[in-house]
Amino acid sequence: MTRKILITESEVDIKLLLSSLLKKHYQISFVNDAKLLLEGAFEKPDLFILNSQLPDHNILEVCRRLKSDINTKEIPILIISASEDIDSLMEACPGDDFIRKPFSASELLAKVHSAINTNITSK
Questions:
Q1: What is the C-alpha R_g of the chain?
Q2: Closest Cα to residue 30, out of 49, 55, 56?
Q3: Distance from C-alpha of 21 to C-alpha of 121, rounded to nearest angstrom
Q4: For residue 98, what are the CA distances in angstroms to 2, 3, 39, 42, 70?
Q5: Cis peptide before 102, with omega less than 30 degrees from 0?
Q6: Is the confidence at residue 111, as pLDDT, over 70?
Q7: For 66-106, what is each residue's pLDDT tens digit?
Q8: Cα–Cα distance measured from residue 51 to residue 70, given in angstroms and rounded to the nearest whole number
Q9: Rounded to two decimals, what is the model's pTM?
Q10: By the number of CB atoms within 10 A of the CB, which of 42, 79, 89, 90 ranks highest?
């Protein structure tokens, strides 16, 4: 069974990178609007990868809402951030893991595999 990843990312270069790295192992889809996440207008994934700089919503609010929703609270969230203040974000946000831009392919894949495998074994 192919695991699914839902990604919010606005930078075209990062989208292409994520797609090329992850499509070999996972079924991936992108949403450009966090409003769709908050409305539940998506097929339930095994992992969310969220850009910390969502153009239309605050990442803290999106994470809190996903983690408080009965349908999504068990889905791990990996947050990608270019923020200089990622430590504060990590303290405030209920995301499960964080990765700083720029990131290496091996670091990203390790974090994705870990998040998905941890989620599978905890079910």
A1: 13
A2: 49
A3: 23
A4: 23, 20, 24, 22, 23
A5: yes
A6: yes
A7: 999 999 999 999 999 887 777 777 788 888 999 988 899 99
A8: 22
A9: 0.91
A10: 79
- Joined tokens for residue 80: 């990608």
- Cβ burial, residue 23 (10 Å; 0-12/13-18/19+): exposed
Pick from 38, 99, 104, 97: which is nearest to 71 by CA? 38
Q: How far apart are the first and last CA of the chain?
A: 15
Tokens of 68: 């408080």
**Distance of alpha carbon 20 from alpha carbon 29, whole angstroms:** 12
C-alpha to C-alpha distance for 78 and 114, rounded to whole angstroms: 11
Q: What is the pLDDT of residues 5-57, one digit of tens each?
A: 999 988 889 899 999 999 999 999 998 878 888 888 889 999 999 998 887 78
